[in-house]
Every structure is written in C-alpha cells, then in structure tokens.
Amino acid sequence: MIRKILVANRGEIAIRVMRTCREMDILSVAVFSDADRTSMHVRYADEAYHIGPSPSVESYLNIDRIIDVAKRSGADAIHPGYGFLSENAQFSRRCREEGIIFIGPGPEAISTMGDKITARKTMIQAGIPVVPGTTEKITAENRAVGIIREIGLPVIIKASAGGGGKGMRLVHREEDILSAIRAAKSEAMAAFGDDSVYIEKYISSPHHIEFQILADNHGNVIHLFERECSIQRRHQKVIEETPSPLMTPEVREEMGKHAVAAAKEVNYSGAGTIEFIVDDHLNYFFLEMNTRLQVEHPITERVVGVDLVREQIHIANNQPLTYRQEELYQNGHAIECRIYAEDPDRDFMPSPGLIQHITEPLGFGVRHDGYVYEGFEIPIYYDPLISKLIVWGKNRTETIQRMKRALYAYKITGVKTTIKFLEKIMNAPDFVSGNYNTHFIEKNWDFLTDREKCLGDCMAVAIIAAYYDYMERMKAAQEKTGTGRTTGSWKFCGRKAGMSRY
Ligand code: ADP
Ligand code: ADP
Ligand code: MG
C-alpha cells in the first residue's frame, strides 16, 4: 500500500494532489527549484526537497534528481501531475525499474498514445473513428499534393510529437502545402526534437469534446462522461464545461463506449482523457489521448462526484475501480475558468511578478484551485497559470450566473490577469446560448476586447472629482446648518461616480 507520495510537479496541481494524499493519510513529498523556494506547494507538503536551478530542464524535468529524492525520502510512489514529466514514457519506465510506483500508465501506453501517428493507427485498429488523413509520417513532399486532393482542403499539418497546442499549421490553398510542411517539420524539430508530421483534414466548425476515463489493472474501464473544451485561444483551452451544450444522450453513450474501447486497446491503467473533434452534426473523430490527469479534471469531479486523484492512487495500489459504469451520472453543471497571469491588452503576454493583494472567491458552489498568496512572486520560468476557478450549479444558466459572481469577487493586484476577459466571455451571447465552437474567441474578439479600457483610470478620476465636489458642498452645508455628514465619504463618492454595485 502506498504510504508516501512524491509529487513531481509544482503550483496548483501539486497542492491539489497533496490535498487528496492528506485525506487518505498518505504523506506527501514536494520537490522545488530555486524559483519555488517560497512556493505554497513546498509549505503544504509534509517534506520538501530542493532539486535544482529554476529552468525546468534542470529541476522539474530532471529524472535523476527526482528519483534520487524519492529514494532518500522513502516515497513509494510518484505522482507526476500534468505537464513536465507526466507524459514521459522514459520516466514511467525508470520508476518501474527503480521499484517506485508511477501513478499513471506504463511506458508502453504512454509511447503509443504520445506519438500521434502511432495513436491514430492504433485507434483505427480498435474501430474508433479518427480524423481523415495520413497514417504515416510525410516523407516524400511531392506526395503531399496527392494526399490533400484525396482528403480535401482545408487540412492541418500536425507534429506527431506535438502537445500544448504547438506544432500545428492550417493549410487552405494547395500551393501552400509544401512550404507549410517544411515549416511544420522545422518547428516540430525545434519544439519536440522529432520532425515527424502528418496531415489531417481540418474539421470546420470544430468542437473539442473529450471523455474522462479510468482503467484499473484488472481489465475494468469506465468513462466519466464528457468535457466541452471549445473555448480556446491558439489551440489552448481557456474555459471548460460539463455537460457539453452540444451533446445528446445517444451520442454521449456512443462516444463513451468508444473512449472505453480506446483505453482497452492499449491496456491502459490509470486516469486518462480521450479527445475528440466534433463537427456541427455531431460526427466525431478521435484527436488524441492524454495519458495523465487533465488540467480541467475538477469539472468532472464536481459533476460526477468522484475524486480522480483518489482513484488514481487506488489504481496504482492495484485495487479494482471503486465505481461501476451504471453507478455514475452527471449531476448539474460545472464550468472551469483558467486564471492566468497574462495581459489581455498586450496579446496575452505573460505577466509574472509579485502578488500584492489577492481576494479569492468563496461561497456555495465555488472551488478555487490555486497556489499564490500575498507576497508570492510568480516566477517567469513556468506556465503563468495562477489558479482554476471551478463553479457548480444545478443547470447551465445558474452556473454561468455563479461564475460571474465568483469572477466579480476575485481580486488580484500586482500582476495582470485574465479575470476581466473571462467575465466578458461569461456575458457573450454566443457563450450564454451555448452555441459556440473553437472559433469562439476570434469570432467574438471585438466584443471580448472592447473593455472600457480606461475604466480603472476614469473611475479614479471621477471618484476624486466627486470627492472634492462633495467636500465643497459639505463645507457649504456645514457653514449654513452646522450639521455633519451621515455617509462615509468614500462610499458616498463611489455611489455618486456611478459605482451602484457598491
Ligand atoms: P490539458 O489538455 O490538460 O488542458 P494542456 O494541453 O493545456 O493540457 O497542457 C497542460 C500543461 O502541459 C500545460 O502547461 C502545457 O503547456 C503543458 N504541455 C502539454 N503538452 C506538452 C508538451 N508536449 N511539451 C511541453 N509541455 C506540454
Ligand atoms: P495538442 O496535443 O496540442 O493538445 P490536439 O491534437 O489535441 O493537440 O489539438 C489541439 C486543438 O487544435 C484542438 O482542440 C482543436 O481546437 C484544434 N484541432 C486539432 N486538430 C484539428 C482538426 N483536424 N480540425 C479542427 N481543429 C483541430
Ligand atoms: Mg489536445
């Protein structure tokens, strides 16, 4: 039985994993880089070990260091979180060799699914619909024209080793195909050290819908329904929700069965996600499998009522799944907003730095998975995710209202954040109606960025002007009647300046 877990990650996901460890009376071990000495995950853990300099390659991606800490601390298992080493087959293999339990699938499943071309071939074998396209890497460039004539434009060129929204190129015109392939290959080589690319049909009006699955080491596989992740910027998810507004019970059941079959085909073990691309008519195609816990897993936890990290640990302990498929159902609705330290006014440039003030949203139906605190400096070295705001309601309308309330209450100063941008999305008619696809952000760009840009400054000027005006009049009134004021001046001036919400 696992008694001590090393969490090979940082930030919100490290803390999220440790919370479940604590509930299960399992000790947690944190690892940290130079930049993360004062990070909350270090404070939250039962033990913490320094593993190297700030750049990830020298710390969170350093397999030897992490294995060494696991041994020194006596951890019997490693949880990799998401990102970093979570989808690294070599790391999973190394853990196995060293007699440490890797909380995730074996190296075989990670390799098969991590290489998108191999994954496509494997899924075709399993009878799962995949996006029309090539099943071999593109070598002879001159064949490419023939291929695109066969599958039809537009197409997308993808890196077989791709991830994180990187290594993709859209092609609309036949004459662009060769230069696009060359560019994609060199980009893939630079980003992933592997220049294999393949061609896929570009699905128009695409929806990204994924299924959460759980598989134990005894041949049991279940799915925990879908997550709609079509609100994306540069192929990266921004907001996720479940259930999907697009889904029907029939298609849900069918896709769920395919997701389970996909996991069975690779003898999967642990928690995983099968991503599908879905067109307007609910035709769906396998996109890729993520062989790890997903950033957006909490919305599934909330609606299905299952702690996915607890299940991962059970599975790693060789125990059979706690749930049968028939026992699971979706209760209400959940939405997650990813809160980033980015500046929406400067093309979402990362905005790391010192958190001067933070007020986290609380209240019924609100979950906030974060890690920053007042006085913490968000490092420049890693993903600028600050936290994830997850909100539940009994239906979609109630959930949107609650998310708006929670975003309104969420205050951070010191760094720029995406909070206001997310609030705009919650108010966008296409989002409210549930009628959106992956083009949502570009389609609604004007609406989303037409913020009252000077609102902060204008408001401050208005308040000061109103305050002086008020003081003048108070003076005049006092001179006349000798009475004082009854309302606090800041509140009074604020109301005067039109801040009726206060
Ligand atoms: P999810 O599907 O769970 O939302 P993302 O694609 O957003 O996952 O990736 C989760 C994290 O992992 C992000 O920080 C992302 O930048 C990182 N990531 C994902 N794939 C890769 C990869 N192949 N190489 C490097 N980082 C990656
Ligand atoms: P990553 O490994 O970077 O997550 P994915 O293959 O999951 O890459 O694709 C990421 C996103 O890119 C999808 O969610 C979708 O928005 C878009 N995309 C990928 N393939 C297609 C396609 N064939 N047609 C339309 N959109 C696509
Ligand atoms: Mg993906």
Which helices and strands appear, and what pairs or packs with what?
Layout: E1 4-7, H1 11-23, E2 27-33, H2 40-44, E3 47-52, H3 63-73, E4 77-79, H4 89-97, E5 101-102, H5 107-114, H6 116-125, H7 143-151, E6 155-159, E7 168-171, H8 177-192, E8 197-201, E9 207-215, E10 221-233, E11 236-242, H9 249-265, E12 270-278, E13 284-290, H10 297-304, H11 308-316, E14 333-340, E15 342-343, E16 349-350, E17 353-354, E18 357-359, E19 366-370, E20 377-378, E21 385-393, H12 396-409, E22 411-413, H13 419-427, H14 429-432, H15 440-443, H16 445-449, H17 455-481, H18 489-496
Parallel strand pairs: 1-2, 1-4, 2-3, 4-5
Antiparallel strand pairs: 6-7, 6-8, 9-10, 9-12, 10-11, 11-14, 12-13, 14-21, 15-16, 17-20, 18-22, 19-21
Helix pairs in contact: 4-5, 12-13, 17-18
The chain binds adenosine-5'-diphosphate (2 copies) and magnesium ion.
Quick rundown:
This protein has helices at 11-23, 40-44, 63-73, 89-97, 107-114, 116-125, 143-151, 177-192, 249-265, 297-304, 308-316, 396-409, 419-427, 429-432, 440-443, 445-449, 455-481, 489-496; strands at residues 4-7, 27-33, 47-52, 77-79, 101-102, 155-159, 168-171, 197-201, 207-215, 221-233, 236-242, 270-278, 284-290, 333-340, 342-343, 349-350, 353-354, 357-359, 366-370, 377-378, 385-393, 411-413.
